[in-house]
Design a protein that fits this description.
Blueprint (H helix, E strand, L loop, with lengths): L9 E4 L16 H13 L4 E3 L9 H10 L8 E6 L7 H15 L4 E9 L4 H6 L2 H10 L3 E8 L3 H10 L5 E5 L12 H10 L4 E4 L12 H10 L5 H10 L4 E7 L3 H13 L5 H15 L11 H4 L7 H13 L3 H12 L12 H5 L6 H12 L1
Parallel strand pairs: 1-2, 1-8, 2-3, 3-4, 4-5, 5-6, 6-7, 7-8
Helix pairs in contact: 1-2, 1-10, 6-7, 8-11, 13-14, 13-16
Bound molecules: iron/sulfur cluster (SF4) (2 copies).
One iron/sulfur cluster (SF4) binds next to helix 12 and helix 13.
Length: about 375
């Protein structure tokens, strides 16, 4: 964990791995993934974060191939997650645990999480008895630390923790843009965990990559303050400077990205007060620009009956709004929306119910259809 003069460790999120076919999330390039794992391990980091659902169900398998079969078990820690909302019944949900053990090729998980609580999703974990089930797996030594990830506000987090004080840690979305957000409430959620002495794993420190592709007006604030510092370092250091953090996760897909992030987290000091003020300024400038806070997590797309390419459509809107580049936005739309155009939306609302960023997807799709079709 981070200390007063050291950042928290970097964690390797196995959700944006290099692919053989860009259109097929299951086509993970294992050879390239091995290379990334080696760069990460050589830098002295050991935390890997997967989930049953990542990469169309292939992320855990990739973990086995690129890590478990190549390093001694005690050299790394593995976290993976149980998506009860994908299960048909309790038996099916519980069977996911054994399946994950098999797919990862391990006898126990260092960290095991109930995946993506919040809003309507929390109840199915109760209905399927998964809290009790995981407590039992922990007692049997198959789980070392048990926790959950959540995309909801501090009130819902309090509610879950009141009902389940037995957890060892919580995984939260934290980055400098969402820190003071009324919707995501990163700061308040973090404070809830701190008040209960619960360590935190941080996800989305770079907000799905958006904090390294900042609009010029925002990037200028950071570049002027520290010329030469990569934009990623502001985002990672913000997350890594918080006390009581187990790992700051990053979904990395090139050796250069792993090396850069690892160097930041290994060698850079925590933020100074002056640097925090720079980040406050950058956040203010960003808040003044229009845009859709989509992190490209794609949860919305799993249940869309029309196969609308929601994530890429939100991206096109952001290119249009934030970069002011109508041509590139249209190109992005033409290239990526394919057979899942915004106009195909039947306004059923399924996507809005699961979007962790609480985006009004339906009205944004209407706007996209007007702009790009
Ligand atoms: S509201 Fe539209 S985009 Fe959302 S799930 Fe329904 S059809 Fe898909
Ligand atoms: S619209 Fe929401 S659920 Fe869909 S990809 Fe963006 S952030 Fe994720």
């Amino acid at each position: 964990m981070g200390t007063a003069n050291k950042l928290a460790p970097l964690g390797f999120g196995f959700m944006r791995l290099p692919l053989k076919d860009e259109n097929d999330p299951a086509s993970i390039d294992i050879e390239k993934t091995c290379e990334l794992v080696d760069v990460f391990m050589d830098a002295g980091f050991t935390y890997f974060d997967s989930a049953r659902g990542y990469h169309a169900g292939k992320s855990e398998w990739a973990l086995k191939k690129a890590l478990v079969e190549r390093y001694p078990r005690e050299a790394f820690t593995i976290a993976t997650k149980l998506p009860a909302w994908l299960a048909e019944n309790a038996e099916h949900a519980r069977a996911m645990f054994d399946k994950s053990l098999r797919e990862c090729g391990v006898a126990y998980f260092d960290y095991y999480l109930l995946h993506n609580l919040g809003e309507s999703l929390t109840q199915c974990f109760e209905d399927f008895g998964l809290w009790e089930f995981c407590a039992q797996m922990k007692a049997e030594g198959k789980i070392r630390k048990f926790g959950f990830s959540i995309h909801d506000n501090a009130e819902e987090l309090e509610r879950v923790l009141d009902a389940h004080p037995e957890v060892d840690f919580v995984q939260l979305q934290i980055n400098y843009v969402d820190w003071e957000s009324d919707i995501i409430q990163s700061r308040r959620c973090y404070e809830v965990c701190q008040a209960r002495g619960l360590p935190v794993v941080i996800m989305e420190p770079v907000k799905g990559g958006t904090l390294v592709k900042l609009p010029d007006a925002v990037a200028d604030v950071l570049r002027t303050a520290e010329p030469g510092a990569p934009l990623a370092s502001w985002a990672l250091r913000f997350a890594g400077s918080l006390p009581n953090v187990i790992a700051v996760l990053s979904g990395m897909n090139t050796p250069e990205m792993v090396a850069e992030n690892a160097a930041i987290m290994r060698d850079c000091p925590p933020l100074t007060d002056e640097e925090r003020q720079v980040i406050d300024r950058a956040r203010e400038v960003l808040a003044g620009l229009p845009g859709v806070p989509c992190t490209d997590c794609r949860y919305c797309m799993k249940g869309c009956p029309e196969g609308v390419h929601i994530n890429t459509i939100m991206q096109s809107l952001n290119i249009y709004d934030q970069m002011g580049d109508a041509h590139r936005a249209q190109e992005n739309y033409n290239w990526n929306a394919g057979d899942g155009k915004a106009s195909a939306c039947i306004q059923c609302g399924a996507c809005e119910a699961v979007c962790p960023q609480h985006i009004e997807i339906v009205s944004q799709l209407e706007r996209a259809a007007d702009l790009f079709e």
